[in-house]
Amino acid sequence: MTKEKFIKRFFLFFALLSIFFLAGILFVLFKEGISAFGKINLGGFLFGRSWYPTHTPGEFGILPLILGSLLVTVGALVVAVPLGIGSAIYISEVAKPGVRDVIKPLLEILAGIPSVVYGFFGMVVFAPFIQRIFDIPTGLTAFTASVILGIMALPTIASIAEDAISSVPKSYKEASLSLGATEWETIARVTVPSAMSGISAAIILGMGRAIGETMTVLMVAGGAAVIPHTFFQPVRTMTATIAAEMGETMVGGIHYQSLFAIAIVLFLLTLTFNIIADHISHRYKKKMTG
Amino acid sequence: MKKRKIVQTIGFSLLYLSVFIAIFALSSILYFVIIKGAGVINWEFLTSMPKEGMTKGGIVPAILGTFYLATGAILFSLPLGIFAAIYLSEYAKQGRLVRIVRLGINNLSGVPSIVFGLFGLGIFVKFFGFGVSILSGALTLGILILPTIIRASEEALLAIPESFREASLALGATKWQTIKGVVLPNAIPGIMTGAILGVGRAAGETAPILFTATTFFCSRLPSSIFDEIQALPYHIYALMTEGTHSELQVPIAYGTTLVLISLVLLINLLAIIIRYKMRKGKKW
Amino acid sequence: MRHFDEEKELLRKRLLSMTGKVEESIKKAIKSLRDRDESIATKVVNADAEIDREEVDIEEKCIELIARYQPEAIDLRTIIGLIKINNDLERIGDLSVNIACASIRLLEKPQLKPIVGLSQMTGIVTGMLADSIKSFINGDVQLARSVCVRDNEADEMRNHLIRELLTYMMEDPKTISRCMDLALIARNLERIGDLSTNISEDVIYINEAVIIRHHRAL
Amino acid sequence: MRHFDEEKELLRKRLLSMTGKVEESIKKAIKSLRDRDESIATKVVNADAEIDREEVDIEEKCIELIARYQPEAIDLRTIIGLIKINNDLERIGDLSVNIACASIRLLEKPQLKPIVGLSQMTGIVTGMLADSIKSFINGDVQLARSVCVRDNEADEMRNHLIRELLTYMMEDPKTISRCMDLALIARNLERIGDLSTNISEDVIYINEAVIIRHHRAL
Amino acid sequence: MVNKDKITTENLNLWFGKNHVLKDINIGIEENKITAIIGPSGCGKSTFLRCLNRMNDLIDNTKITGKVSLGGENVYNNRMDVVTLRRRVGMVFQKPNPFPKSIFENVAYPLRIQGVRNGISERVRKALSAAALWNEVKDRLNISALSLSGGQQQRLCIARALVTEPEVILMDEPCSALDPIATAKIEELLFTLKEQYTICIVTHNMQQAARVSECAAFLLLGELIEFNNTNKIFTNPADKRTEDYITGRFG
Amino acid sequence: MVNKDKITTENLNLWFGKNHVLKDINIGIEENKITAIIGPSGCGKSTFLRCLNRMNDLIDNTKITGKVSLGGENVYNNRMDVVTLRRRVGMVFQKPNPFPKSIFENVAYPLRIQGVRNGISERVRKALSAAALWNEVKDRLNISALSLSGGQQQRLCIARALVTEPEVILMDEPCSALDPIATAKIEELLFTLKEQYTICIVTHNMQQAARVSECAAFLLLGELIEFNNTNKIFTNPADKRTEDYITGRFG
Ligand SMILES: Nc1ncnc2c1ncn2[C@@H]1O[C@H](COP(=O)(O)OP(=O)(O)OP(=O)(O)O)[C@@H](O)[C@H]1O
Ligand SMILES: Nc1ncnc2c1ncn2[C@@H]1O[C@H](COP(=O)(O)OP(=O)(O)OP(=O)(O)O)[C@@H](O)[C@H]1O
Ligand SMILES: [Mg+2]
Ligand SMILES: [Mg+2]
Ligand SMILES: O=P([O-])([O-])[O-]
């Protein structure tokens, strides 16, 4: 083998590591979690309405957890998507260069605030506030979690959407203006539609982030494993369940295994989102290059 | 014509509003943390051990723990990430293999952090028997930030115009000479940005270290990589959810949060400054 | 059709109409002599100014076309050919003026025995001229070559004429001055033939990019 | 210096050397008559082939330059001017051959009284030719204009000569044929003057982009 | 035939920050003619063109003095609505820039934003025909405009500019991204367009200026050095600097 | 003066995947002359050029048959070392592509990768002089190459290609990113370079091919239609298709 060939193989090995890790994750999750299905049937697991793992016999229905996750995620998106995309459009199309140079890095920096900080803020500031405003027994509700999660996902969505919007060639904008369009028409009819796939990818990635989010929801969602009926009640998500309960389980026990089983569901769910986002942004690239 | 102008005014107002809300929401978080945390922070807080069941004293083990974890994670994932990125951008030919690798990286980055925690638990803590330790936590975090590093490095490498490579090859350089002489030197700032962002991310993560590295309280500083540790993010969580004197713990949590935020934001700021500098200086 | 082709076409048409004028001049100059009508000759002399103007115009247009379209290959050859043909046509116009002037001088004096050869020669050279231009317009290299061949005929004829004139002069010295003018006319006609040949050679060059002039026996 | 300028310079030089040859031809043709040396005249006739070849070469080179460099403005005018001047030079060459041929015919017969005017006229027209080319090479419009003025002198001289010849012929019809040849020589010299004038006009055009020919009184 | 000026500028000056980019430009762009702007890189050609439809408004720190009149009205007057102005003065850019929409929607765009509802497809057809593109695309109006070739894209952009029937069309190096064959097609198109429109074209291809234009302006360092018939400029420029530039002796 | 061929191709065929891009090309590129390759976009000009120094090796799915000889040796022979080949056959690209290093280091790069240690600065000076750039940069060899103007950058790239004294220089549209004035400078440079080097230049600017080259090859859809003296090609091409292309009647 020549030197050049050797170098190439060397690098190839490292490129394959990601796959290896991904496979490793899958393997560990299944290794630890699969035997849960020996004891709980799959339908009962996914659609069971109650989650009482510590009872004897334990009940392992994760429907409340799934619904909790979805509720919080949807709520978060309702907050984050309009604000995030609005901000993205503002930054890339409307803001004066001076303003843009402040706001854009600001958002990027804020994107780096750790999730536990959001959780903390939610617990000590926002939840009491909600409790007072709506006069409800606890401020730790799906609503609270949604809003906090939404704010948290906002910089992510804004930043990816901003990338997509500002990578729309300047020539489109010039073309539209030179044809007698107003700036708003240019944004609404040319710039944003051209960046649509990038924006959708941003939304889906934001969704993935929200659904996989752990600490925030763990701290502010309230943690009641019941099927939610309103926004203003405590809920418990899949991630929070794992984080909260793993510490107290017996390694290898059914509770331990079922938590891994939840992780499998979570993993597959986010995998799906990611593949969809990937697909969209792939198509987007193709479209932009003709 | 008038109607078109009005539509424009309304549209722009909505945009201003959304930016305003976004900035307001995010800065109010900072505001509270800074206002409430600033009073707690002093030299002692930063340099002494916690006392009296976490109701008094400082957070030095948590600071150190976060430092060890983040350093360990970056030491582990930086070389891996760079090597993988070099393969992808310099050697890989478009084909099934690359698509799979890339899909793998994208999905790895989308895996929820708690799942990484479980993975670390399953592999490092249990299978390799490292136990709950700095090593397990750092490795878990390292894998978590690997996609970030690979992406940033790859982006930095791809930003080097193809024409540089062609020029070098056409001058009779070998591939490796080209990478070493022309590609990598120009990609270093970009790779550094990626690495710094990775450090910031690693420092702020909680879920992955829940079961792999941290403990609520340890009475001494770690002496080896196989020791349990405290970490800032987990410390905040623990202060809020465990212990019994929450009225005493919340102020400490504020202080810890301010320290963590300052740390992470400073790191991110650094990365962003480097990136802006780089974009400005770049003429090709 | 390319814009350049349109412009070129226009130029061709102008050249054609200029040829018509020049041909007319030659015929008229000779006619004035035959009909002993000075007014016709005067017209020829006066008409020349227009031909001259047209020549200048066409040349300017050609240079403009080169400057603006940077023609290559056959287009370039055509334009260069046009410039040269245009030049030749103008000279032919001048030659007919020369003939007309000689005619005017001759008309001041009594008529000599009419020289049949002159009309005949006029027929030949105007034929040559017409054909050379026709060959240009149609890109007809065959026809162009035939013009070159006919040039010898014209030369022959001129020699014959001059010899005839010499005899007249010897016989009657009073005719010398008139004969000199007639000889001049013959020479001019022959030169018209020469120029038509030049034109034909240019046509061949334009179409085949072979410069053939001087190759034929002198 | 641009590569194009080098090529143009080369062409100019070639044109200059061609002018030298042509001038020589004219002088030799006249000299052969004066010295009654047929061999000189023959040399003139033979030398023409080379001038012809050179003309074709120069013209091809000019067209090549247009095709390859797409010259504009003064460069274009220079090349077009070169083509035309080149053409004129070749014609002047032909005219000296004509003179040489006439000379050969004359030498077959006894000498007439030497015609002083002829030498003098030769001096004038070769001077005009030399100056017109010089004005081209140096871009000297002043000089070019002076050539145009001198043309009238040459015309005058020719008329004078022809009148003198007419007298001879009248006096002695035996000289008619020789006088005709001498008249031909005078006409050819005058045409050389005309062509030099043409060249000068082209020089003016090249440098000032004003086409002046035909504007002056005919 | 006396031609009148469609656009005139009077002492037009423009600064980008402290950079004095256009200096006292006085020019008259004649109706139904093609006017070419030539000059070395950075001399202000594009800037001048973009003054005419106020595209320079988009650039910060721009200062403009003097007058630009379109059919007698001052373009920089406060009462002049930029949107209307740009509809009257269309523009075609250096790189073909169709929107990533279908061919049809690209051309229909200017109509749609004006709120036109009826007869759109007829007007699109007419514009595409005028841009000599109709025959090539009539069977596939719904495919993405980005799948057209560069030359076709540029003609599409021309059609898009024509559909609202502007009075003037500005073109900033419209062929510099095209190969010679596509360029030739656009040039031919220009000859037919000028019968209906007033066209002003910036090009750094002098030969192109020579071929297509009737009048040509030579700019140098922001100054208008010479403005004349194209014939005159290319066979006998009045200014030495023009001559030097035209013959490639410059710099 | 009999010139011998420096590079010859025999029945050179090239496929990109199923796309037959070069078809039976037989050509002889003469020593110390400039050979131009012209033809419409996509006809395979660049591909042909890149066959000569095997830059096409970098593209996947390429299949090549036939022979390319450099001074008698087959370039596609297994014994031919690509690195050595590329050192002997230099290349200059369409867009100036200096490395983001200093001027000096750019030119020194090829020497450094060859492990040359002595006399580097002398050789750099010589190369810069040969590329007619020395006088413009001699006082600032240490500034970044990226701060040079486009035309200077391209001459720098030429210097960089010259420093290892290749036998042949391939240029793929070296002036298409430059303005006319910088282009004129490069063209003048070519005339002096050809005394020492064999040059093969791809250009879609026909006038440029006409100006600089001694021989010209016209490619169409991957076929070599005509290969002849530039004079001949531009005044009297043998093939109707060449004539049509040259006179702009094509397509
Ligand atoms: N947006 C801008 N901000 C500041 N200066 C600018 C801007 N655009 C152009 N300039 C400057 O204005 C001058 C003229 O630029 P312009 O683009 O009009 O030149 P041009 O003649 O079109 O050149 P080219 O042929 O390269 O397109 C240049 O010096 C340029 O640096
Ligand atoms: N890397 C590649 N992979 C596949 N096909 C290619 C590749 N490069 C070029 N081709 C195809 O090969 C053909 C010839 O391309 P090439 O770049 O040689 O053309 P060209 O004559 O240089 O054109 P241009 O004037 O546009 O540069 C084209 O049909 C092109 O689509
Ligand atoms: Mg411009
Ligand atoms: Mg190419
Ligand atoms: O970001 P998380 O660690 O809270 O999932």
Automatic annotation (TrEMBL), chain A:
<dbReference type="InterPro" id="IPR051124">
    <property type="entry name" value="Phosphate_Transport_Permease"/>
</dbReference>
<dbReference type="GO" id="GO:0005315">
    <property type="term" value="F:phosphate transmembrane transporter activity"/>
</dbReference>
<dbReference type="GO" id="GO:0005886">
    <property type="term" value="C:plasma membrane"/>
</dbReference>
<comment type="function">
    <text>Part of the binding-protein-dependent transport system for phosphate; probably responsible for the translocation of the substrate across the membrane.</text>
</comment>
<keyword id="KW-0812">Transmembrane</keyword>
<keyword id="KW-1003">Cell membrane</keyword>
<feature type="transmembrane region" description="Helical">
    <location>
        <begin position="106"/>
        <end position="130"/>
    </location>
</feature>
<keyword id="KW-0592">Phosphate transport</keyword>
<comment type="similarity">
    <text>Belongs to the binding-protein-dependent transport system permease family. CysTW subfamily.</text>
</comment>
<dbReference type="InterPro" id="IPR011864">
    <property type="entry name" value="Phosphate_PstC"/>
</dbReference>
<dbReference type="Pfam" id="PF00528">
    <property type="entry name" value="BPD_transp_1"/>
</dbReference>
<dbReference type="GO" id="GO:0006817">
    <property type="term" value="P:phosphate ion transport"/>
</dbReference>
UniProtKB/TrEMBL annotation, chain B:
<feature type="transmembrane region" description="Helical">
    <location>
        <begin position="183"/>
        <end position="203"/>
    </location>
</feature>
<comment type="similarity">
    <text>Belongs to the binding-protein-dependent transport system permease family. CysTW subfamily.</text>
</comment>
<dbReference type="InterPro" id="IPR000515">
    <property type="entry name" value="MetI-like"/>
</dbReference>
<dbReference type="GO" id="GO:0005315">
    <property type="term" value="F:phosphate transmembrane transporter activity"/>
</dbReference>
<keyword id="KW-1003">Cell membrane</keyword>
<dbReference type="InterPro" id="IPR035906">
    <property type="entry name" value="MetI-like_sf"/>
</dbReference>
<keyword id="KW-0472">Membrane</keyword>
<keyword id="KW-0812">Transmembrane</keyword>
<feature type="domain" description="ABC transmembrane type-1">
    <location>
        <begin position="63"/>
        <end position="271"/>
    </location>
</feature>
<dbReference type="GO" id="GO:0035435">
    <property type="term" value="P:phosphate ion transmembrane transport"/>
</dbReference>
<feature type="transmembrane region" description="Helical">
    <location>
        <begin position="59"/>
        <end position="88"/>
    </location>
</feature>
<dbReference type="GO" id="GO:0005886">
    <property type="term" value="C:plasma membrane"/>
</dbReference>
TrEMBL record, chains C, D:
<keyword id="KW-0592">Phosphate transport</keyword>
<dbReference type="GO" id="GO:0030643">
    <property type="term" value="P:intracellular phosphate ion homeostasis"/>
</dbReference>
<comment type="subunit">
    <text>Homodimer.</text>
</comment>
<dbReference type="InterPro" id="IPR038078">
    <property type="entry name" value="PhoU-like_sf"/>
</dbReference>
<feature type="domain" description="PhoU">
    <location>
        <begin position="16"/>
        <end position="100"/>
    </location>
</feature>
<dbReference type="Pfam" id="PF01895">
    <property type="entry name" value="PhoU"/>
</dbReference>
<dbReference type="GO" id="GO:0045936">
    <property type="term" value="P:negative regulation of phosphate metabolic process"/>
</dbReference>
<dbReference type="InterPro" id="IPR028366">
    <property type="entry name" value="PhoU"/>
</dbReference>
<dbReference type="GO" id="GO:0005737">
    <property type="term" value="C:cytoplasm"/>
</dbReference>
<protein>
    <recommendedName>
        <fullName>Phosphate-specific transport system accessory protein PhoU</fullName>
    </recommendedName>
</protein>
<dbReference type="GO" id="GO:0006817">
    <property type="term" value="P:phosphate ion transport"/>
</dbReference>
<keyword id="KW-0963">Cytoplasm</keyword>
TrEMBL record, chains E, F:
<dbReference type="GO" id="GO:0005524">
    <property type="term" value="F:ATP binding"/>
</dbReference>
<keyword id="KW-0813">Transport</keyword>
<keyword id="KW-0547">Nucleotide-binding</keyword>
<dbReference type="GO" id="GO:0016887">
    <property type="term" value="F:ATP hydrolysis activity"/>
</dbReference>
<dbReference type="InterPro" id="IPR017871">
    <property type="entry name" value="ABC_transporter-like_CS"/>
</dbReference>
<dbReference type="InterPro" id="IPR003593">
    <property type="entry name" value="AAA+_ATPase"/>
</dbReference>
<dbReference type="GO" id="GO:0016020">
    <property type="term" value="C:membrane"/>
</dbReference>
<keyword id="KW-0067">ATP-binding</keyword>
<dbReference type="InterPro" id="IPR027417">
    <property type="entry name" value="P-loop_NTPase"/>
</dbReference>
<dbReference type="GO" id="GO:0035435">
    <property type="term" value="P:phosphate ion transmembrane transport"/>
</dbReference>
<dbReference type="InterPro" id="IPR003439">
    <property type="entry name" value="ABC_transporter-like_ATP-bd"/>
</dbReference>
<protein>
    <submittedName>
        <fullName>Phosphate ABC transporter ATP-binding protein</fullName>
    </submittedName>
</protein>
